[in-house]
Design brief:
Layout lengths: L2 E4 L5 E5 L2 E6 L2 E7 L5 E5 L3 E2 L1 H9 L4 E4 L5 E5 L7 H11 L2 H29 L5 H15 L3 H19 L20 H23 L18 H24 L8 E4 L2 E4 L1 H16 L1 E2 L8 E2 H16 L12
Helix pairs in contact: 3-4, 3-5, 3-7, 4-5, 6-7, 6-9, 7-8
Length: 328
């Protein structure tokens, strides 16, 4: 079921029977059956009526309010029974150094593997300098022997530098993408990556909460006030196959152009048309079906997020070792 993104400034979500309406100045911009919506995201200056809020809560459909950069302002979620024994086990595991090391090893190895898969795709189309690929492979192999979380973080950083040296080769120099920059993004590619990673984190927060986990207590990312560390843990293995490949598609198929961006506040951000297109394509990617070696049948990315959240839960409960998402 798709995510409904509402971007139009001054628009409002209303309820009509079993449908949601997007209206502006008494004009209906969109009608959609409530049962077809899995999540509603309001971007910027968009409102919602009380009856619509009640309908979303009754349907157990989360509502997110985000800024145009993707930064989360707040979330409205239905009351759900919390899995107290699971959360207690999660808090205990956070103090278990051996468990944190095993989780970090799996997360970093999964991220590096998925980056290598996308890097190979890039090199098949644009065969250039392959030294960064060797570095990426070495970092991935190094995760097997690493005995400290700090060492794994170092391998993750080494792999990231090598990966982005290859990833930038996927784009025409006119896009001015030289390296990863954020807070604020300094060029259009970084603007897309930052927005995509932020939205990905929101989707993974929802998946973790659905299985009863605390998205703010992670094992790879250190706890920091207001930061959903466990959601960010899972973001790592989905960055390359989900966001990075989506950005390549939008840019290289010329669905977006440099004219869809503007400089603002020292950074570069999407204008209205580009933001609408990106959110639509991001939502479509959430529902696109992919097959992994572990699952063996096609599932939407949204379902894969739930699968990974349940794998984290089973690992916390000692039922199995954590297995990261592996892209083909």
């Amino acid at each position: 079921m798709p995510t409904l993104y509402v971007v139009e400034p001054g628009a409002r979500i209303e309820k009509e029977y079993h449908r949601l309406l997007v209206t502006k100045e008494d004009e209906v911009l969109l009608r959609v059956p409530l049962r077809r919506v899995s999540q509603v995201v309001l971007v910027g200056r968009v409102g919602v009526t009380t009856p619509a809020l009640h309908a979303l809560l009754q349907a157990q459909t989360p509502l997110l309010l985000v800024r145009r950069t993707g930064a989360l302002v707040g979330r409205l979620t239905p009351a759900m029974p919390r899995n107290l024994p699971l959360r207690q086990a999660q808090y205990r595991r956070n103090d278990d150094a051996a468990f944190c090391l095993a989780m970090t090893r799996a997360i970093v190895a999964g991220k590096l593997r998925n980056q290598r898969v996308l890097a190979l795709r890039i090199l098949r189309r644009r065969p250039r300098e392959r030294a960064p690929l060797r570095t990426l492979r070495a970092a991935e192999k190094g995760t097997v022997q690493a005995q400290k979380v700090a060492a794994l973080r170092g391998l993750e950083g080494m792999g990231a530098r090598a990966y982005f040296a290859l990833y930038r080769q996927a784009f025409d120099p006119a896009w001015r993408f030289e390296k990863r920059t954020r807070r604020p993004p300094r060029d259009p590619i970084n603007a897309l990556l930052s927005l995509g990673y932020t939205l990905l984190g929101h989707a993974l927060m929802t998946a973790l909460e659905a299985v009863g986990l605390d998205p703010y207590l992670g094992f790879f990312h250190a706890e920091k006030y207001g930061r959903p560390a466990l959601a960010l843990d899972l973001v790592e293995e989905f960055r390359a196959p989900f966001v990075d490949s989506l950005v390549m598609t939008l840019v290289n198929k010329r669905m977006l152009s440099p004219g869809d961006f503007e400089e603002r506040g020292g950074g570069v951000y999407l204008k209205d048309r580009g933001l609408r297109l990106f959110l639509r394509e991001f939502g479509d990617r959430l529902e696109s079906r992919v097959t992994t070696p572990e699952v063996g049948r096609p599932l939407s990315y949204r379902k894969h997020f739930e699968v990974q959240a349940r794998r984290v839960a089973r690992a916390i409960l000692g039922q199995e070792s954590y297995r990261p998402f592996r892209a083909r």
